[in-house]
Amino acid sequence: MARLADYFLVVGYDLDKRVEGEGQGRILQRFPEKDWEDSPFPQGIELFCQPSGWQLVPERQPASFFVAVLTDINSERHYCACFTFWECLDNPQLQKAEANELDEVDEDLAVVQAAKVFAPKSLVLVSRLDYTEVFRNCLGLVYTIYVDGLSAPLETVVGNLLTCVIPIAGGSQTDESPVCSLEKVPQALACDWLLACLQPGQEEREERLRTITLGAGDRQVVQTPINDALPVSGSTVAQLFRQLGIVNVLYLLCAALTEHKILFLSNSYQRLTDACRGLLAIMFPLKYCFTYVPILPGKLIEVLSTPTPFIIGVNSFFRSETQELLDVIVADLDGGTVTIPECVHISLLPEPLLQQTQTVLAMILDPELEIADHAFPPASSQPSALKIQDKEIRAVFLWVFARLFQGYRWCLHIIRIHPEPVIRFHKAAFLGQRSLTEDDFLMKVLDGMAFAGFVSERGPPYRANDLFDDLVANEVERIRQEETCPHKVMNHVKELAEQLFKNENPYPAVAMRNVQRPTENRQNEPPNKPPFPGLDDVAVQLFIDHATAKLKNAPPVVKVELKAMVPSGPPLGDTVDRNGNVMANSARRLEVVRNCITYIFENKMLEAKKLMPAVLRALKGRAARICLTQELNQHVLQNRAVLDDQQFDYIVRMLNCTLQDCSHMDEHGIAAALLPLVTAFCRKLGAGITQFAYSCVQEHMVWTTMQFWEAMFYSDVQNHIRALYLESEDGEQHKNLEQQDGSGDGREISALDLASEQNRLWPTLSKEMQTERVQKEESTVFSQAIHYANRMSYLLLPLDTSKNRLLRNTGFADVESVSNSYVTNSIAGSMAESYDTESGFEDAESSDVANSVVRFINRFVDKVCNESGVTNEHLKALHTMIPDIVQMHIETLDAVHRESKRLPPIQKPKLLRPILLPGEELVMEGMRVHLIPDGREEATGIMGGPPLLPAEGAIFLTTYRLIFKGTPTDPLVGEQVITRSFPIASLTKEKRISVTIPMDQFVQEGLQLRSCTFQLMKIAFDEEVASDLAEVFRKHMHKLRYPQHVQGTFAFTVGQSGKMVVEHKTKDKNQSLKTLSKNLVKSAKRTIGRQYVTRKKYSPPTWENRSSFQSELDEDEISVSEDLEPQSSLTLSSTMRSSDRQTMSNVVERACCRDYQRLGLGTLSNSLTRSKNEPFRISTVNRMYTVCRSYPGLLIVPQSIPDTTIQRICRCYRQNRFPVVCWRNSRTKAVLLRSAGLHAKGVAGFFKSPNTPSTAPSQAESTSLEQEKYLQAIISSMPSYSENSGRNTLSGFTSTHMSTSDSSDKLRPPKIGALMKQVMGTKEDVPGTFSRGGKWGSIRGSGRLSAYNPDVGTRLAGKESLQANGGPSEALFLRQQKAYLYIIGDKSQLKGGKQDSFQQWEVVPIEVCDVRQVKNSFKKLMKACVPSSQTSDPNMSFLRCLEESEWMALLHRVLQVSVLVVELLDTGSSVMVSLEDGWDVTTQVVSLVQLLSDPYYRTFDGFRLLVEKEWLSFGHKFSQRGAQTLSSQSSGFTPVFLQFLDCVHQIHLQFPMEFEFSQYYLKFLAYHYVSNRFRTFLLDSDYERIELGVLYEEKGGERRSPQVCKSVWDYIDRLNKKTPVFFNYMFCPEDDEVLRPYTFISNLKVWDFYMEETLSEGPSYDWEARVRQERAAEETPEKPDTSGPKSQRHIVWPCYDGLSKVVPDAITKLLQDLQSLEAELGQTSDKWKDTWDKIKTTQRAETKLESKPSFSSSLLMSSNLSHQRRSQGVYLQESAGSSINLAMDCEASATSTPVAGRPSTSTLYSQFQSTESENRSYEGILFKKGALLKPWKPRWFVLDKTKHQLRYYESRQDKECKGMIELAEVESVIPGTPTMGAPKNIDEKAFFDIKTTKRVYNFCAQDSLNAQLWMDSVQSCLSDA
């Protein structure tokens, strides 16, 4: 029973305490005056009566009512019902104003002018019960009595109100009389329980239904809820949803549950209270336990900035003050909005629950939504009445929480039963079993205070049950089945809603209410009404005292709670994993795990090893991990399992793998299940020393997580307490129970069931029994605490106690994290050492570890013992024990650690040594590493095939390469050898990584090394490699990668001891070149010296000079050439002049001169004898490299230009690289020139005097004129120009224009025009150029259209150009269709040059790719082709990355310009390529133009010459672009030459018959141009090569070591003689064919050089290594193979085998076979080239002999094959016109079908078959039966003893073998019988069969004699063998 009201107050306006218009309230009267003992009087009520402040108003307001909620210090809620009305009084303002004589007028004066004002007065009821309506009626009655002047005295009513007692819920069982019976007290004071409708036997009604009357003729019914555990909501929830909407309320609910701050705004106070009440009602069964103030007075508004969560309501009047709250969710009830600040993230209900909840709520709140689209909607679908709707919504949330918390009771740990239950919730297990560990919302809810309250309230197993308990226990199955079907859910919700409604309104029928209301006119009472009267204190107090006395005498009310055992519901395991991620074919995986464990314990180690990788993969799945723990449990006997070393190792590996994927909270209980196992499995290390598995599985986060240990502890305690009571004296009742499983969740009887039983019995036990039980439980907990202190020390103390894990892994210990590597924990180690040496005590080294472990265990013990009620004495005992336990354990560990070090290491794979090249030496011995897979999928087995990576082996650093060699860790491919290597010089990026090796579960330090040969090595160092060793490795690698000078590279050091590079370990790192000079001069003398001595060329300048020169070379080139000119020209000229002639003869030897002579560009004869009509001469102006240091010594210049002019002109060009001729078209005599761009003066300076007035105009002008003269000289060298040479320039031009231009002009003007359009882009109007409409294609420079001089393109396109004013330009009338000279210039340099119409040259501005662009593009290309890790991101796919790299676009641009130049040259115009510094793009374009135009450059010799001339002599900066030395390291790797080779590869693909060399040749060059194995591509110019003395040594200087090639060309020549690998069999050029490849990106292909790799042998470009490898393989003796013939099958893995080697093309294969056959016959084999040439000549002869050439050859003989036909032709065109047909459709006999009408030679074998008799030991015609259903056919058979085979041909004349039977495969020869379809009229004995291992052949001879002969011959062949 409870009082309906605790206090009644009258609160009025306090006139005395007004402060500047802010009034205050004061309590005028309060009853009872004394506080009740059970509920003290709440303070500050006057604030809550007028939350917006006490104010006087000019006119009367209607009376108002609301309920505020106050919370006292014990967190009890008090409901304050405030009834406020307004009383009239004289305006205190006016009085005050008069008194103050208006000196200080209040600001209210302006507003309140009236003489009368109204002050608020409140009647307040304070109660602990929440009956809003009853309070409204009672206070309304008091007011009505006062207003209407009713006869009932107010004291009576108030007294009755305060003494009213009603049941909280259910009420008393006894039929009690009214508290104050009518006889004993005066009628006026009657406080009656009028028992409504009392009929006999209806005690229920009497309990729950109380009618109260306050003695004023009123009566009302109070309906108390049946069960007060359920909240009472009225219709507040429904209203809340109507005000805010479904989604908003869900947000608020989730925000409240996840502890956010919520603020409600409304103009109505009662609505604020209702909204808060509604929100709390839907949170049930969770209770809100933070600040809860439904109505907050304005004066307390700063409460909103509290840091704790809250639910608060505030009047909208204060909205502005809530604006700056950053972390508060604001719900505006009047506007229906919820505002969530940006910084607040609300976790919502997990899907699909959220969606389902919204659907059901929508069906309740808006039933018409579902049928809105129906054609015939049902008649009525109105939502239920508000009250019902309210319960339906609450039912939905009950359903939601039942789904969220289902099975929670299975995760409760009961750790004490007596004296009262102590219960803990195992959060991790709950989340794990529900597979909701990722769910943010549930995690937060379970961590929250509300859930803690839920556990402590609902945890006890023996208590009263309610609706939620029933739902979560008995309805789980139903909820699960219905959750996807909204209508079924709806039915369930309606059932629940009915129960909720019934609980709130037990008797909806009885709603008796008879309460007077004030009459209408009285509400607006006259102003002269007297104020609310003071009540008589004595009278009221009398009532109260009377009632309390009566209550004291009454018998005590015993409310018998219906306690019962709380049902647990179905266990979690059954209800979950519908959406848990079950791994595929898990049964198979479990089988693998079980088998592997069985093998381990049966000691079948090989089997176990094979299964291991599969097991480790399977252990990723939860089922497999659980299976592992169960299986291992079976092998533990009496808590021990002693294993041998290898078993122990495997078990530990499995345990580590299992634990690795456990999160630190161990939600699946895997770590918990393994905990007993790691203390059980052990191995004997020595006498009395045992190592347990726990010392090897400590590296996991879970062991350092406090929550894990608590959960483990509690679950163990629960099991022990359960066991205690199961076998206690109460055991009789459980006798029938079967054996329990050890988990504590036994189906038969769980610990909770036991506990509830014990709780039921507790009151019946005697005192002694009770204390005994308490002690037993206490000692159980205590013993477990000791046990756990031991366990924790096992897992927290590392084997090597100098390394502290706790410090490292987590912030648990007070010391900061130290380091992450478990191999060398150097810091912890050094701490230990310093302790040891400095401080005197011996245990020092373990002290830091011991202390942190002790601290951790102490914290744990404190927490669990306090929670489980262990006495203080016990706790102290534990604290003294723990340090001893830890210390003891450390001592045993030391012994184990000592012994474990002595163990022989586990057998690791033997390190394989790599095969080194001649001259290559190891710098560092192999370090054991793991090669980890990168982003390429081929080797990992993802795309099929075995997983070759990860592999275990060693990494070797040599003077030349970085080599990994090892074997795959997967045992199925364990016998393969994996090699991955690249030259040190090609290393572009090295970065440290940390890698987890899947086999060992440890995180290792590693390196990721990327090479520009498109190779990537991700290596992880094995634990045996010390980290300082890895550091040494890195340093050596850097030293080798970036030598101080080019002489440190492998190409130079190869002859000497490689150790030279590495020996400076002790020396200072930053040695300058000078300190090194001594060593290097010696070595330089060694390498260079000899030829200087013999030839007396010159003595090299000293190193001091050279080093300074070298360092400056990399700065701004121009300044270098200017600053250094005097000095360098001095040294060089002085040294060279003495032997000028000799040097010159050497220069002449250079390749370029041979080429110039081939092209007819001049000879080096004496100037007198030189014929005057030769337009060009070879100038020696640069022989001392004084004019231009990066040019060659000899240059082609126009005949008419003297050397002095050249020296002046060169200054206009960057780097002094003036225009020189490098090629001449033999047909049109047009020349190709190259130069650098002009100094940035713009074109104006090119053609006219400089724009800016300069100091010496005459000189500048003369230079400019000389330049013009130079260009004019070039133009006049052209035959097309010299025809018109006699005339004046202008007239010459005009006349030429008027006459028809020569024939070559007309060849392809439109084609060129189109090309021009593509090459140059346009912008709107470029200053200084003509503007024109029309769109042009362009080479796009990073997305921009290029500006250019449009006049050029128009003319090239043969169009007219209009001037800016619209008239035709007169210049055009004087203009030829085509210029004599086109200058391809850089657009950015050609700004603002006005085109001069009288000149004969034109500038074609193009946009070139910057070297920076090339560098960045290449980086992206490498990442695309060799990604460092696998990604599933679609934006990172190969094609997307390739596109983003823009590499193909760059190739397209270079090719496009080259094709344009080819076209121009072909139409007779000369072209000068003048781009950037003239050594990057210029070189690319010029070389490609020559390659496309001149077939000579497409041969071996020609290509070599092209590269030597254009790239090497003309000074492409190989060293700088390849970042080959320390000085060029910063500039990075820029593969300009690789780009050129890629362009050649693209052309090769389109014209496969035009090149003598194969694609492999290009790859070979691409690899070795960065490898630094040869000196060819090392320095930046001829000048540098001469200076180092390497230029001429390749030319036949005596070589010391014959096998060390210094030039890549020599190497290729030598290799080409041995093998046809560089030769292109399809080579059959057409005379003077100019190639015009397609250049669009769609026509370009990614070069396979970027993608392919051969793991079996590493890159195939170092042939010696390959040959040596094969030899080594041959030398290993093979066992005689007895198993019969070997299978011919060989599986080829694309990333493992070298395809060209394993599956060679047909011709290579035949040449190989030929060689081996000749070797067998003992003949000396010819060189392959001779053989090939022989075949070609035979082929030609045959074609000539043939009378009727076949269709195919006649087709091929026709010379005008189209480009497409040629570029994709399958036929190999010979110069004579014959063809070799490579037919692809082979018959089963593996020979190809001949083309009809002529003998084919696709198997070149028949040519070499000798026709001598011994080779054909027997021949003749036999009938042979074909395959199934094929007829018998006569064939010409040849029995060959030499080759040991029986071959057959179509006829005797046929040279084409149709097939053969290898006699090696023949098993027997036996007489046969005729079969179906055999030839008729033939003797039966003529049939015989030959049986081979594969099949049986049926033969038939002409007669029996013949058959016998054949059988004998075959038999004799077999016996001879």
The profile of the biggest β sheet is:
7 strands, antiparallel
Physical arrangement of strands within the biggest beta sheet:
27-26-25-24-30-29-28
- Beta-strand percent range: 5-15%
Question: Mean pLDDT across all residues, rounded?
Answer: 74
Global Rg:
51 Å
Shape: elongated
- Which spans of ≥5 residues are poorly predicted at pLDDT below 50? 97-112, 171-208, 574-584, 729-747, 807-846, 1058-1142, 1242-1258, 1285-1310, 1322-1376, 1594-1600, 1678-1684, 1747-1814
How many distinct beta strands? Answer: 46
In DSSP terms, counting alpha (H) and pi (I) runs of 4 or more, how many helices? Answer: 63
Percent in helix: 25-40%
- Structural class of the secondary structure composition? alpha+beta
Instruction: Report how far apart the termini are.
Output: 117 Å
